[in-house]
Amino acid sequence: MDRLVVLGGGESGVGTAILGKQKGFEVFVSDKGEIKEEYKKVLEHFEIEWESGKHTEAKILNANVVMKSPGIPDKVPLVQQLVSKGISVISEIEFASKYTNATIVGITGSNGKTTTTMLTYHLLKDGGLHVGMAGNIGDSYAKMVAENDYDEYVLEISSFQLDGITEFKPKVAVITNITPDHLDRYNYKFENYIASKFRIAMNQDESDYLIYDVDDEVIREWLKKHPVQSKLLPFSLKEKQEQGAWLENGTIKLKVEHKTLEMSTDILTLEGQHNVKNTMAAGLAALLVNVRKETIRKSIQTFQGVPHRLEKVLKINHVEYINDSKATNVNATFYALEGIKRPIVWIAGGVDKGNDYSELMPLVREKVKAIICLGMDNYKLKEAFGNVIDLMVETYSMDEAIKVAYKISERGDSVLLSPACASFDLFENYEDRGNQFKEAIKKL
């Protein structure tokens, strides 16, 4: 009997353990941290052996295959040991895909991937397809494959998950954009991170499709030097495409082989140029899996957007409060600042992943009247914007940040939480940060 060891007892780990058990593996789950009570119960229900708070090497190094959670870096000594012994270390995406014949739409990118994933899922579901949404979002993909294998999957896939694939091959791959992010995990080399994103297409052949932003110079240059086998479907806000999607006089035009679809940007429920791109990517993916044009047009008008992504929370004294906690890198914050038309009180900071704030400078000069730093170490933010912004305040809790924002904002302003950083210094995750933001506003 093959032995499957799962490192990390979170959503993806437990899902993989369930699928592994179902497929006849001897399964062991090991988490260096604390496994949540709800997950312990699930593991016990399926009679899966687990340990929490430690890694017992003797029980791990005898594995045939190891699934490691995306949060564990490749350079951890235990992972290095496994690799040096020739034991295959893979991600959940790789493991689960072996056990399904479903059509897979895989979506990656530095920003926009959650919106594009949720919108694509929304279009396919409204189109009557038996579709599941998983990956970096929501429920475990492996658990879905074990419990109710769908005909189609829309997967949001991070670069860390792509690092752990060998044979994973989506029918439709989407790269929304590539900007520097998580460089701490890629030896601070941008090209390592780019290569990681492009792994989504590495096993594709000429019967598969790659949808990508052709306005993104990083993607364009990489494709010139590293051509892929799949059929290319570029999308652009700037120029007409032979195949793919483009913008013409306020109309989005989609063309895939012999199918064409046109729709006015007026029907989009989401604001901002980046959401025109997300809509193009999702629309192309929906056409490829044969969702009807009318359905696509109609469903785009009912899409509600993603929690913690430019989410309007409340208006108090004619000041609007916007929760963009999901903006964990500079490029995501760029979109937020670009899209807001009012003077901005900007709440930013957290765990800096090697950020370069210079691309925000023109927007900050033009639109931001005050910066409220919210993080344990705000040195880089102060260094970047200290000379440009008259008012910078350091805070160390969400309640404090909101009280300051309330004091300094005036009628017609926007208070924007768009941190450009990870959240782990003061919060559990970006959801917790966004929820605390919403709670603090309700207390005003």
From TrEMBL:
What is catalyzed by this enzyme?
UDP-N-acetyl-alpha-D-muramoyl-L-alanine + D-glutamate + ATP = UDP-N-acetyl-alpha-D-muramoyl-L-alanyl-D-glutamate + ADP + phosphate + H(+)
Cite the Mur ligase central domain residue spans from the record. 107-285
Question: Entry's Pfam families?
Answer: Mur_ligase_C, Mur_ligase_M, MurD_N
Q: What is its EC number?
A: 6.3.2.9
What are the binding positions for ATP in this chain?
109-115
Coiled-coil ranges (or none): none
**Keywords associated with the record:** ATP-binding, Cell cycle, Cell division, Cell shape, Cell wall biogenesis/degradation, Cytoplasm, Ligase, Nucleotide-binding, Peptidoglycan synthesis
Give the domain of life.
Bacteria
Upper lineage is: Bacteria, Pseudomonadati, Bacteroidota, Flavobacteriia, Flavobacteriales
Biological pathway? Cell wall biogenesis; peptidoglycan biosynthesis
Q: What protein name does the entry list?
A: UDP-N-acetylmuramoylalanine--D-glutamate ligase
